[in-house]
């Protein structure tokens, strides 16, 4: 998945040490909104902060790696999948999600006769790519 939108612009600015005020000014965003992104990026271990006169926010080695590769998503998506029930289905779906760089945060499975409804909370995925790779395994996929 490509770095997109505001996340991409903020992370690109953080290749050099910047303050929230500098970032918000350059991107024409409110500092509170920039601070929300910074907190999420910090929680993910992608940025660190330095206090003091020459302080600011900058990328960690992991953050630099992701900017170079262009892959990161701060969004999680809740997905509802309907598929024909069979042995190994969940393993196949999990494997395909992993192959495209997704990470499953939670899952719930419900049986209805010969079908299953799988609820997944996934981060770092592109929904269209997910539909493409899971197409052979499922009947429907809906983002909730």
TrEMBL record:
<feature type="domain" description="ACT">
    <location>
        <begin position="78"/>
        <end position="144"/>
    </location>
</feature>
<dbReference type="InterPro" id="IPR036388">
    <property type="entry name" value="WH-like_DNA-bd_sf"/>
</dbReference>
<dbReference type="InterPro" id="IPR030489">
    <property type="entry name" value="TR_Rrf2-type_CS"/>
</dbReference>
<dbReference type="InterPro" id="IPR000944">
    <property type="entry name" value="Tscrpt_reg_Rrf2"/>
</dbReference>
<dbReference type="InterPro" id="IPR045865">
    <property type="entry name" value="ACT-like_dom_sf"/>
</dbReference>
<dbReference type="Pfam" id="PF13291">
    <property type="entry name" value="ACT_4"/>
</dbReference>
<dbReference type="Pfam" id="PF02082">
    <property type="entry name" value="Rrf2"/>
</dbReference>
<dbReference type="InterPro" id="IPR002912">
    <property type="entry name" value="ACT_dom"/>
</dbReference>
<protein>
    <submittedName>
        <fullName>ArsR family transcriptional regulator</fullName>
    </submittedName>
</protein>
<dbReference type="InterPro" id="IPR036390">
    <property type="entry name" value="WH_DNA-bd_sf"/>
</dbReference>
């Amino acid at each position: 998945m490509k770095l997109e939108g505001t996340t991409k612009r903020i992370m690109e600015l953080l290749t050099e040490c910047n303050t929230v005020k500098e970032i918000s000014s350059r991107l024409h965003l409110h500092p509170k909104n920039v601070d929300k992104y910074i907190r999420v990026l910090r929680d993910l271990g992608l940025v660190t902060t330095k206090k003091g006169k020459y302080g600011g926010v900058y990328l960690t080695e992991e953050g630099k790696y992701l900017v170079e590769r262009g892959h990161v998503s701060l969004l999680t998506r809740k997905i509802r999948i309907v598929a024909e029930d069979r042995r190994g289905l969940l393993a196949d779906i999990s494997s395909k999600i992993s192959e495209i760089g997704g990470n499953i945060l939670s899952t719930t499975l419900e049986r209805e006769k010969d079908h299953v409804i799988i609820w997944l909370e996934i981060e770092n995925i592109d929904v269209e790519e997910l539909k493409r790779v899971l197409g052979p395994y499922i009947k429907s996929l809906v983002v909730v």
